[in-house]
């Protein structure tokens, strides 16, 4: 009896020891699980709390660090740009005279671009390409100086200049001949334009009546020249940069089209398919027969 009781006690003791071991093992597993969960949660929280990375932005998107108009001019200097341009009696006429010099003397190779290679000088501005270009240049100056010096839309002024540079890629002559190392036509044109345009802005050019701008300030000749020279330098840099970026895209698109012509949609086939599908979808409208009239039997 004593032996059996002793065996029972030892068996119970072994069971208790095993239960305690199991409990310890479960505790360790739960602790490790909680630790792993906390680490995972910390990592997830850190990733969620981490600031979103900035995506690559195009040349037209708001990025103050890249916009030269933001830090190149004070408010007074931006107003100076606007007011000195407003004082010109007929800026479009001045721009036209300067472009006549550019087309005939500075860069005569662009005569063909503007369609004036066989047109006498007095009639050149009447031609649609050259006359339209002069009008657009006047509008760009008017809008840019207004956004800088009146509405303070610095971003809009920058976007307008970048858009103008990209638009010049539609001209095949510039795609083939504009080269920053040899001949940058933006620099050639704007440098000469600056040289001829500044005397009108400062009032040095004789015989040019100046409009009176209400509440306009008086600016020294040195300030006007300095502000406008910086403005023209920004035009050259921004138009050239945006043009080169757009030209790269155009060249890449042409390369893809040449290498994989079977993947490029054929415009004529596409239009033909669209017209066929449209004709199939249109219900046929039958002409209504004329209503027959019967005599009233009554």
Write the layout of secondary structure elements.
Layout: H1 2-49, H2 68-72, H3 75-86, H4 91-106, H5 111-114, H6 128-149, H7 154-167, H8 172-177, H9 185-202, H10 221-259, H11 267-281
In short:
This protein has 298 residues and is mostly helical. The chain contains 11 helices and no strands.
| Alpha-beta classification | mainly alpha
Q: What average pLDDT do the residues reach?
A: 79
**In the CATH hierarchy, what is the class of the domain at 73-259?**
Mainly Alpha
H/E series? HHHHHHHHHHH
| Strand content range | under 5%
Count all strands and give the number.
0
CATH superfamily of the domain at 73-259: Globins
Show unreliable segments: 43-64, 294-298
Radius of gyration: 38 Å
What percentage of residues falls in helices of 4 or more residues? 55-70%
Q: Overall 3D geometry?
A: extended
Tell me the CATH topology of the domain at 73-259.
Globin-like
Q: Treating each run of at least 4 consecutive H or I residues as one helix, how many helices?
A: 11
- Tell me the distance between the termini: 132 Å
How would a textbook summarize the main sheet? none
CATH architecture heading of the domain at 73-259: Orthogonal Bundle
